[in-house]
Design brief:
Layout: H1 3-14, H2 18-74, H3 78-83, E1 88-89, E2 99-107, E3 122-131, E4 134-144, E5 154-159
Antiparallel strand pairs: 1-2, 2-3, 3-4, 4-5
């Protein structure tokens, strides 16, 4: 062997395995980054799924408010609604396996007539919407319009 090839062998003998260590370090960094991205994307999918369920439950609760308002608008005697077995199911909603909505009509707390006797033309409609694992409740206070027109007119005094 000549002198040049001996020097190359001596230099390369001192560097044996350094490329392997660097490659393994780089591969482990890439693996950690990949696992992190997969975890983050799985969490994002879960967040979107839950937000969709809660939005649907809220929409169903609003449908319950609309149904309760319709029932009160069509009724001349609100005491019949207050004394009825409650909660009322919303007709034609999502199948019960996925969810649905119910509403109940309650007398306001300030009414001296008690829970089943409306004396101040003010009631509270509470609707609950459920969809899969989410539930939302919406409350609204309703009072009768004192005008003769339109018949059955209602006005909202607030919602939560």
């Amino acid at each position: 062997m000549d002198l040049l090839s001996r020097k190359q062998m001596e230099v390369s003998r001192g560097e044996q395995g350094s490329v392997l260590v660097i490659a393994l370090l780089f591969a482990s960094i890439l693996t950690i980054m990949g696992v992190s991205f997969i975890t983050i994307s799985g969490t994002d999918i879960s967040i979107v799924f839950n937000e969709t369920n809660h939005s649907q439950a809220f929409y169903l609760a609003e449908a319950g408010i609309a149904e309760g308002t319709r029932v009160l608008r069509d009724s001349n005697d609100w005491d019949n609604q207050l004394g009825a077995p409650q909660p009322f199911p919303c007709p034609g909603m999502v199948p019960a396996a996925d969810g649905g909505c119910t509403f109940r009509v309650e007398n306001d707390a300030d009414d001296l007539g008690g829970p089943a006797n409306d004396t101040n033309d003010l009631v509270v409609v509470r609707a609950t919407g459920t969809f899969r694992n989410a539930a939302k409740e919406v409350d609204i206070g309703l009072t009768r319009l004192l005008l003769p027109f339109p018949p059955g007119g209602l006005t909202s005094i607030g919602a939560s």
